[in-house]
């Protein structure tokens, strides 16, 4: 039996990954840039075991049906094939999220699984190797190998597509992200299906790709200059543009709900009142607000008029992946 365990934190993209050019290798159409957060993480243990006749996936102690297990099993198949392992595995994942709010993330989940497998099989991978491997589980997982800011360089092959850390000279510790939970339902359209439909059918998709290089340049410049307003403006604009592509798809779709729009408008109002903050959204209706730590309390105070405290979850910059011993203590 080979066992391993790892903890990985989720990340939120400021410049989004939206679209694959290779579905099988998970090579993205564009580079993306994210902030790893401390508030949501996954701890996963894996045991490759002679006695198993199929893979088993437990999430928060409950065995999962094959639909939920798809990404996990596909990843285990890849591991078996790449490293000549012939055993099935039991995967045990715990999602640490403040509420059951639909924030379970494939980024932290698949990054933790990649780390646990690397640990179990004694692969001795560098962070770059681990990022490449996590990418095969779920694209955004490659960014969760690193703490703080990271950029996923799209590359053009399995070898050249991985994330790397962006050194912000500690600026990430002055930032916060406030999650506004407006809906905890299961998504209608997964991000995987949504991005595929957009790439294949949206007449707006080329506009998305045309704008990426400039957005990335601006975001990296803002980080280097510790310029919050520049980073916030490009984050908000890039997120809106990503969501714009879904409206041009056939058939069109959106991840926004009326409540999402309400939050967006509140953010604009708060900004007009002199508090700098900027929103971004992913493949669901919840809104994330980028704000400087020093303004977080004021931002929450303003939003408390409209949302309960359970709907407002604060997060700060979080660490990279940690490989754990099976008892839970840190190995590296
Ligand atoms: C991101 N998203 O950059 C973008 C923005 C959602 C919107 O990465 O198919 O679960 O497993 O590679 O990583 C979510 O997509 O998709 C995502 P797959 P993934 O964070």
Automatic annotation (TrEMBL):
GO annotation, biological process: isopentenyl diphosphate biosynthetic process, mevalonate pathway
Top-rank lineage group of the source organism: Bacteria
Diphosphomevalonate decarboxylase-like N-terminal domain residues: 8-163
GO molecular-function term, one example from the UniProt record: ATP binding
One protein family per Pfam: MDD_C
Record keywords, A-Z: ATP-binding, Lipid biosynthesis, Lipid metabolism, Lyase, Nucleotide-binding
GO CC terms in record: cytosol
Main EC class the enzyme belongs to: lyase
InterPro entries: GHMP_kinase_C_sf, Mev_decarb, Mev_diP_decarb, MVD-like_N, Mvd1_C, Ribosomal_Su5_D2-typ_SF, Ribsml_uS5_D2-typ_fold_subgr
Domain Mvd1 C-terminal: 178-314
Entry keyword Lipid biosynthesis: yes
EC number in record: 4.1.1.33
Family, as annotated: Belongs to the diphosphomevalonate decarboxylase family.
Protein name as it appears in the record: diphosphomevalonate decarboxylase
Organism: Candidatus Enterococcus dunnyi
Lineage: Bacteria, Bacillati, Bacillota, Bacilli, Lactobacillales
């Amino acid at each position: 039996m080979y066992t391993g365990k790892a903890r990985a934190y989720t990340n939120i993209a400021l410049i989004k990954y939206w679209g694959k050019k290779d579905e099988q290798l998970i090579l993205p159409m564009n580079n993306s840039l994210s902030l790893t957060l401390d508030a949501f993480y996954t701890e996963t243990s894996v045991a490759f075991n002679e006695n198993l006749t199929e893979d088993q996936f437990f999430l928060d102690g409950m065995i999962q049906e094959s639909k939920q297990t798809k990404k996990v099993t596909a990843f285990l198949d890849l591991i078996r094939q790449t490293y000549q392992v012939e055993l099935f595995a039991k995967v045990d994942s715990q999602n640490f999220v403040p509420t059951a709010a639909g924030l379970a993330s494939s980024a932290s989940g698949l990054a933790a699984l990649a780390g646990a497998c690397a640990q179990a099989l004694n692969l001795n991978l560098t962070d770059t190797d681990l990022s490449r491997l996590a990418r095969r589980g779920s694209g955004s997982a490659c960014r969760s190998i690193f703490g703080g800011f990271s950029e996923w360089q799209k590359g053009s092959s399995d070898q050249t597509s991985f994330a790397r850390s962006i050194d912000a000279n500690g600026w990430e510790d002055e930032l916060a992200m406030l999650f506004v939970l407006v809906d905890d339902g299961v998504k209608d359209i997964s991000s995987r299906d949504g991005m595929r439909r957009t790439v294949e059918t949206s007449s707006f998709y080329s506009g998305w790709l045309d704008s990426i290089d400039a957005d990335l340049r601006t975001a990296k410049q803002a980080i280097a200059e510790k310029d919050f307003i520049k980073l916030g403006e490009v984050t908000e604009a890039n997120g809106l543009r990503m969501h714009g592509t879904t409206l041009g798809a056939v058939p069109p779709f959106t991840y926004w709900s009326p409540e999402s729009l309400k939050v967006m408008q509140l953010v604009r109002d708060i900004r007009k009142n002199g508090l700098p903050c900027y929103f971004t959204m992913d493949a669901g209706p919840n809104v994330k607000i980028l704000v400087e730590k020093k303004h977080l309390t004021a931002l929450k105070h303003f939003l408390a008029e409209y949302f309960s405290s359970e709907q407002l979850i604060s997060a700060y910059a979080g660490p990279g992946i940690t490989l754990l011993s099976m008892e839970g203590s840190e190995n590296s």
